[in-house]
Amino acid sequence: MDVTALIPSVGGPAFTVVFFIIALLVIVAIHEYGHYIVGRWCGIHAEVFSLGMGKVLWSRVDRHGTKWQLAALPLGGYVKFLGDANAASVGGSDEMPGRSPRSTMLGAPLWARALTVLAGPVANFLLAVLIFAGYLMWQGKASEDLVFLEAFDVPAQFESELKSGDRIIAIGDVRMGEEGASLDALPRQPTQDYTVLRNGEELVVKGPNPIVPRVDSLVPRSAADDARLRVGDFVTAVNGTPIYAFGDLVDAVQTADGEPIALDIWRAGETLQVSLTARPTDEPQPGGGFERVLRIGIGGTFFFAPATDPIGAWEALTLGVDRLWSSITTSLSGLWHIIVGDISTCNLSGPVGIAQASGSMAAQGAGSFMLFLGMLSAAVGLLNLFPIPILDGGHLVFHAYEAITRRRPSDRALQFLMVGGLAVIGALMTFALLNDLILCP
After folding, report:
1. Among 93, 129, 197, 300, which one has the highest count of C-beta atoms within 10 angstroms of its own C-beta?
2. Is 370 exposed, middle or buried, given 0-12, 13-18 or 19+ CB atoms closer than 10 A?
3. How does pLDDT run across 393-438, given as a tens digit for each residue?
4. What is the pTM assigned to this prediction?
5. Mean of the per-residue pLDDT values for the chain?
6. Which residues make Cβ contacts (< 8 Å) with residue 319, sequence separation at least 6?
7. CA 137 distance to own-chain centroid
């Protein structure tokens, strides 16, 4: 189903809010379930598992005595363990009438409390890995041979003579699989000669440049996204000049040097024009660090869907872990570069930016939304490990202090630190919200 078809009837803001809430509820539920299930395994009784905050809309008590509830405000959730003074598990008592102190959070051994706290972020990381692995298994991996499977819906100037099952041996003078072969070396012209193997016979047929100016993906909140471009759109001309390869579009954006450009767009048989301006973007580099470049936020692709090979579960999980690690290291690197002033603070998004990204990725299709969900889950897991009081990382610091000193921080110290943690989180959220609405709209 094409999710973009829902936008005119549902409305942009409503569409965005719905998918933001879906993303948030999934990630919060997984995070809190991690706390709950590991706490239960460690012998700590959970009194309440709440998805959402505020007024309770629905609840039930399970056979373990845990109250499961849905609350009216879908902007968070919590697990309240036995003896906790509040949902943040700060303070409380290990003396509960009729219950063993061991079943309370404060009465449990240090290792049990630490594992229970750590389980929330770990659950988010596991969700991210499973999403990445599932996506890879669904998509498959590129075949060793480039095989034409089927063409996308394309404008007349991008039609080809290729047929399903054709194995592409060469495009122009570039032979597939040769060391150093690059499709970027192809001349920018309306048609190319494709040498293909079809039914055991080698043929030469006509087709467009393989990497066409088709919108394969959109960066949320980018110039192209704000201009309402959609996945599947073709850019047929820039400032009135026809283009035939994605590289032509990249060159035109760089040549404009931040000035507005007019794009002729072909969309499912219809033509329209949009004007947009490339924006400075801090892109992570393979060797580390970031480079500021001008981008409109479009990813290109082949004019056809190539054949893929299936990918096994173990390989997919391994690649999923690699992608999680890359996401974590890139996020930490980005945060550090923001702090030292090497890149713009506009790389820090708040709730409005995340909500807009949710809607944008959902509009690009189920796969894109699931990948976004995986990235967001990884980010939430990482954020919760920061050593800030009130976050899971802050609790782990308290537990580390207890392990070293053989005593817990005093209630007064905990309250002071929690207030400080709330102030830090509040300041960060305020700054991120200002970024979303005023500084980097």
Report:
1. 129
2. middle
3. 999 999 999 999 999 888 888 888 888 888 988 888 888 888 778 8
4. 0.89
5. 89
6. 132, 133, 136, 311
7. 18
Structure tokens belonging to residue 283: 């892109």
State the average pLDDT over residues 95-110: 82
What confidence tens digit (pLDDT) does each residue in 43-69 have?
999 999 999 999 999 999 999 999 999
The C-alpha atoms of residue 363 and residue 357 are separated, in whole angstroms, by 10
- Three-state SS string over the chain comes to CCHHHHHHHHCHHHHHHHHHHHHHHHHHHHHHHHHHHHHHHCCCCEEEEEEEEEEEEEEEECCCCCEEEEEEEEEEEEEEECCECCCCCCCECCCECCECHHHCCCCCCHHHHHHHHHHHHHHHHHHHHHHHHHHHHHHCEECCCCEEEEECCCCHHHCCCCCCCCEEEEECCEECCCCCCCHHHCCCCCCEEEEEEECCEEEEEEECCCEEEEEEEECCCCHHHHCCCCCCCEEEEECCEECCCHHHHHHHHHHHCCCCEEEEEEECCEEEEEEECCEEEEEECCCCCEEEEEECCEEEEECEEECEECCCHHHHHHHHHHHHHHHHHHHHHHHHHHHCCCCCHHHCCCHHHHHHHHHHHHHCCHHHHHHHHHHHHHHHHHHHCCCCCCCHHHHHHHHHHHHHHCCCCCHHHHHHHHHHHHHHHHHHHHHHHHHHHHHCC
Which residue, chain included where needed, has tokens 């990235």? 375
91: pLDDT strictly greater than 60? no
Summarised one tens digit per residue, pLDDT across range 327-345 is 999 999 988 888 888 888 8
